[in-house]
Specification:
Blueprint lengths: L6 E12 L6 E12 L3 E5 L6 H8 L7 E6 L2 E2 L5 H11 E5 L10 H11 L6 H10 L15 H13 L5 E5 L7 H16 L5 E4 L3 H4 L4 E6 L2 E7 L8 H12 L3
Parallel strand pairs: 3-8, 3-9, 6-7, 7-8
Antiparallel strand pairs: 1-2, 1-4, 4-5, 9-10
Length: 252
């Protein structure tokens, strides 16, 4: 099997079961979907719907119980742990709600860290360009404790972008930010897609955040129950997304 052309990430009949026997919990149930190169997809669903599990399996952070996951043409299930770790460092960028910056490192050093871990020596110009792209070039020598939450998330996005990954996975990237800063961060992710051709897959519970995406996938009980193209542009269409979420939370 080979990955379908045009998809940065593809899941084929991916299931994830935790536990066994009567204690088994099905977190994902035969999910098949793809994330086109140069697209921005939001994943939404009620608590326990499987959205975080989907992201973790797609990003190689968790191995599915069944099915196949491809990233940049490589089947993750065929990789041993060391090769999988290398692929994550080189081909996948991560942005988390908690920023996950190293407190003892400067912004520049945090951005350079994925490349150093991959055995590559990042150039100063690469790091500077990544920080400039998210508007914090003037904070290059500051440590996380000297930065606001929004600035820390900007550094985290620069860190995700610096290796020019096949895909950026964002897990509730605005969850710890105020509304104004959230819009700035979402705008940066939108720019990464529109200007730089990046692929972004974002888990979010926030309809406004999801409205920045090109497409919204809704999950319930470990399955995709709706897959819609977003309309109206960033910040618009949030009411329709919120209405669909309310239906799912009511079991409709």
């Amino acid at each position: 099997m080979t990955k379908e052309r045009g998809e940065a990430v593809q899941l084929w009949a991916v299931s994830k079961v935790y536990g066994a026997g009567q204690q088994a919990v099905v977190a994902l149930n035969a999910v098949t979907t793809g994330f086109p190169t140069g697209s921005f997809t939001a994943i939404m669903g009620p608590s326990g719907s499987g959205k975080s599990t989907l992201l973790h399996c797609a990003a190689g952070l968790d191995r599915p119980t069944d099915g196949k996951v491809f990233v940049a043409g490589t089947e993750l299930g065929a990789l041993k742990e060391r090769a999988l770790t290398r692929l994550r460092r080189e081909r996948i960028g991560f942005v988390f709600q908690s920023f996950n910056l190293m407190p003892s490192l400067t912004a520049s050093d945090n951005v350079a860290l994925p490349m150093r871990l991959a055995g590559r020596r990042p150039s100063r110009s690469q790091v500077r360009a990544a920080l400039a792209a998210v508007g914090v070039a003037d904070r290059a020598r500051h440590r996380p404790s000297e930065l606001s939450g929004g600035q820390q998330q900007r550094v985290a996005i620069a860190r995700a972008l610096v290796t020019q990954p096949a895909v950026i996975f964002a897990d509730e990237p605005t969850g710890a930010l105020d509304s104004a800063t959230s819009r700035e961060v979402l705008g940066l992710l939108r720019t990464a897609v529109d200007r730089h051709g990046q692929t972004v897959v974002m888990v979010s519970h926030d309809p406004l955040a999801a409205s920045y995406a090109d497409r919204v996938i809704f999950l319930a009980d470990g399955q995709i129950v709706d897959d819609v193209q977003a309309t109206g542009g960033p910040g618009r269409g949030a009411e329709a997304i919120a209405a669909r979420m309310a239906q799912l939370e009511q079991g409709v």
